[in-house]
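Protocol step 4 of 6: structure prediction from sequence.
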Amino acid sequence: MRILLLLRGSAGCGKSTWIKEHGLKRYTLSADDIRLLCQSPVLGVDGAESISQSNDKVVWKTLFSILEIRMQRGDFTVIDATNSKTAEMNRYKEMCSTYRYRIYCVDFTDIPIEEVKRRNAGREALRQVSDEVIERMYARFATQKIPSGIKVIRPDELDSIWLQRLDMSHYKRVHHIGDIHGCYTALQKYLSDYGGIKDDEMYIFVGDYIDRGLENAEVVKFLLSIMDRRNVLMLEGNHEKWLWLWANDEVGRSMEFETVTKGALEEARLSKKDVRQLYRKFGQCAYYTYGDHVFLVTHAGLSTVPENLSFVTTEQMIKGVGDYNDFERVADAFFDNTPDNYYQIHGHRNTKQLPVRVNDRVYNLEGQVEFGGHLRCVQVDKDGIHVVEVPNPVFKAPEIAAKPAVADGSVEEVVAALRKNKYVLEKKFGNISSFNYSDKAFYDRVWDEQTTRARGLYIDTKKYKVAARAYDKFFNINERAETKFDMLQHRLQFPVTAYIKENGFLGIVSYNEYEDDLLIASKSTTGGQYAGWLKDMLYGSLSPARLAELKDYIRERDVTFVFECVDMEHDPHIIEYPQSGLYLLDIIHNSMECSRYGYADLCHTAGRFGLRPKEKAYEIGTWQDFFDWYEEVLKEDYEYQGRRIEGFVIEDSAGFMTKLKLRYYSFWKFMRSVSQEAIRRGYIRKTSALTTPLANAYYAWVRKLHDVPERESLPRDICSLRKMFYEENRGV
């Protein structure tokens, strides 16, 4: 938790011994320890070893850097130093104000100086100091005072700083109110149903008061109106940090807050000073008894109740133990690790959309209220534990990342916008131009209406009509805000379909009326080697009569055939295929809207021309089924029907698309870059990225290829290298 403990006392007074006796070493930052990391012990003129003081600038810079990292997470921390100067302690005090820490000083200065000299003489020689040093310290303690705002305790008063379990049995009822997310109407409905806030009842809010909902300013105003009540405890959620940054005139990384919530707060003329005071009221957890029951309340859930909750980092209370999707396992662990009368209540995460009561002793208050779900509440009273769910009538439907249809006659305007966008490149092929996002747009992630549209888009700039097209750009799961896994439960409209994502390059085939021939293109051009390979594969797959029929079909229906081209001869990728082949991914109408054939029509048309359509792997009917499927396919050893694949393209019933790359593919894609660098240099710069035995074994093998005489003739594709590696290292 957010507690900083400063030790104040001369060298030799017993600070380090006190730390060891109280089991605090693992939480301690010691200036002397950092000095020994910077420099080994040095010999003095008398032959004795001592700790060098010559690196103090680096030592203190390092200590404060580490301390700030710990404070950002809310780690309990002890500072083992003399802390003899007021200015030094003021620096800690300022940091505690920034990170909302409680700060204490354990004062050892009342130990008589002669006793300290005696103790110093009994220390190991390395850590002894001269009597003159101790005398200077005591002289400084007499004039350099502990700043106000730092609570001073004696060494025997440590227990006074720890989080204490409260007894709330005297309250008629304890209300636990789940994630509100700007849903004021639902919150007021719950409170009004139980007579408003009553003095003889306790109200615990689990956090996440803002963002995504439509009534953020109203919620904050209400919290300001109740923040000083003794029977109200508001815990901090992960969204509140954006509120704190705004109140301090800083900009956060939340697009939702910066583009929506912030405007609502400022339009309501909320005082930033008041909001800062509100934020300082937020607690980290509630830990109390009610009758014979013990309750732990956090924003996101812990896996047990440790002997001392103060040692648990605030970050884990706010974000939860484990990964975001581990909440059910955490609930089970809490059930297994705590006595039968212990209960836990939390919010924040519920990607499986489980009911409020996860198991007999864990309650989950995340109910998707901001998306039209329920405000979840749990009440505790003399009669037991009661669940209450309030539907939210005021919400906005999740935006689906599908492009709206473009009106007729607007192609010219689209072309003008594409040409003005510095992240879009145009290549001209007579009257037809290709528009594609630039490498800079890709690496800088500059995705807007133009850059997402400019992906394999070919426009006749004489007649201003679409000549050929592929998909609008769509993204991997967790790559963008709209594809974050926890957001997919709100965005996906079921049923959803998962198609096999083949591992090749994208190619498109349409009709070029100026040449009365097929328009065959790849990598934003009709003339490159990839377009040539696609043409060879297409012409090798279809007879001249079929090709002529295909041309007529495309011309008459004004469509584009989109292919995945797996070319194991010229362009092997990550996944090994027994032979090259074309996979018909989609047939798309040549319009600005990405309108595609349905899967049945796609398969029928593919059969007509002897083409292989993409493979439908799974149809998934509910979010729970999707969650379980997602967990299954992301296992290290997952294979689809006995073969390795790149991943899946996921499409919901509204046309929203996202991609899922599997672990095998991602691992060997990374090892491909390792191979290229290791063969070229004989090593790679960042070996820390090699985190598994297989990665290290492969790296040890591939770096040897740098020294072989025939290095230049070695295959560079990862499929061949992987095969060579396994042949030479059977059993790995």
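Step 5 (inspection) to follow. The longest helix spans residues 663-681.
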